[in-house]
Amino acid sequence: MSRRSIELLFLVIAGAVSTMAYVSVYAGRFREINRVSIIYGLVFVSIFFLLHLLVRFVLPQADPFLLPITALLAAIGLTEIFRIRPALALTQGQWLLVGAGLFVLTVFIVRDHMKLDHYRYIMGAIGLGLLVATIVLGTTVNGAKLWIHAFGFSIQPSEFAKLAIVIFLAGYLNDKKALLSVPTHHVLGIPLPAAKYFGPLLIMWVLSLAMLIFMKDFGMALLFMSIFVALMYMATTRIVYVVLGGGLFAAAAAIAVAVVPHVQDRFTTWLDPWPYASTSGYQLLQSLFTIADGGVLGAGFGRGFLLYANRQPVVPDLQTDFIFAAIANETGLLGAAGVILLYVLFMWRGFRIAVWAPDGFSKLLAAGLAFAFGLQTFIIIGGVTRLIPLTGITLPFVSYGGSSITANLMLVALLLMVSHRTNVVREGSDLERRRLAERG
Amino acid sequence: MIDIVLLVLKIGILVLLYLFIWQVVKTAVATVRAPAGAAAAPDVALPEGSRPVAVFTPAERESRREDRLSERTMAGDKLDFTGHIDPRLIVEQSPIVPTGVVFPLHGWITVGRASSSDVVLDEHFVSSTHARFVPRGSFYFVEDLGSTNGTFVNEKQVSGEAQLKLDSRVRIGETVFRYEE
Fold it and tell me: pLDDT tier at A440 (50, 70, 90 boundaries)?
């Protein structure tokens, strides 16, 4: 079976799950099953079917699993948003369309991701520029300055900055990896590479972190910080960067906990939320109750206790940061574990693509994207389940939020491009093989 | 009625979710093995189950025997040190020069990043005048010209100069040459 047929088959399963989940939510609310619920499933499936057709003709040898996994996650997210705030589901559906459009544009404009290597400094500048723009033009919501309001939309530029920074780092590190893996001098006994090559990296790192901290976007700050460390380690295989990055982070976190009240709150409620049950710990405890309420099998889509009688969600921000709690409530331990497994599968495919990629830039790009995606998932699911202190960040493809779903669809497009090129290099293009076979 | 439908949907969604995960893993693992096998297989499609075996016609076998004989005489030639040797460097691996490129050696040959070198290696770990290949009698020597990152013969750093033997590996920066004569 060809890659694209496999993809189509899995998309059909994802479509079936999506339709069933939507029918379940609809039936739970209106006590009836009608055509509208089936049509919803078909509309959703057709968006991904169109993306599948694009991939079939433009990137025929790309990995067949990424798109169906994306579709299934997006389906679960969209259904759960419809469940919690029906009005927002329509907006999210429109954002999914915009994301699909940007996916198509990315594929057509970039075509070959190797071209991005030539624009690495521009990408770095775009990444920083997006962060600067947020500080200058952004509006403050919930104490954090993350969004830019423009043309009636609100955009969260850090989600796109994430992609640009990964592209920059992959290009820069691939070019300079040999120089960065040789220490030329020691500072306080720590071996460091030549400042000429390490300096720009350090400046980028400090700048992006400073801006994210200034915006109070700590989840993204943690994510950016880790992307830098992970890519440095992958490019140079020198563990000293991980130790150094971890140490710097621990120091920065300790200072933040001591100085910034917002962070201090998050930290103390993480250690022990009970004394703050009606204040700063309320959200986290409600989330834990909601997860526990789901049991092993869950209440079923549309039947969990997620809304009070006045239609307010039981957990504040349930449709964005805390959507995992809602999923755990309605699909139970099994469903929640299944969703985590879907994320694991996505990361696995991403790293597989990186391992097989024939050149350093592709390897670093794919691994960086897969790492960023996986860590973002870990940060928010860990936060919601009280494994780590809570930092607000979106759950890729599932949370309500246009920028998140759009940026992550572009991430999938990039991974598919790397994968397609890898397979063409490894096994020759399908076209060539067909011609060879015809010649006999 | 509707409650039964909802229960069926709830179980059905979980079953499909895990079916999806299980099938992705199963299919992906199956395709992991396929490309490895395909890489080892020849370009020509072979029938299922058959493996490529070297089969030669008697004429081919004869010609191969002759090849081996001629190898032996070539090995004999090597005993003649003053015979016409053809010293050359062959690129084994390099980030900038394609593998397999041959640099014939005659007279003094300088290697470095400077464009005035005989062999220009424009990479970060190569000094502008890095090393020099020098003939002495019928032997070639490599001489390090005080480079920052050193010159290596068979991964041993050259201090001053080192004699090259057949198949010596000379590493300058990230480029490895094989010496042949």
Answer: low
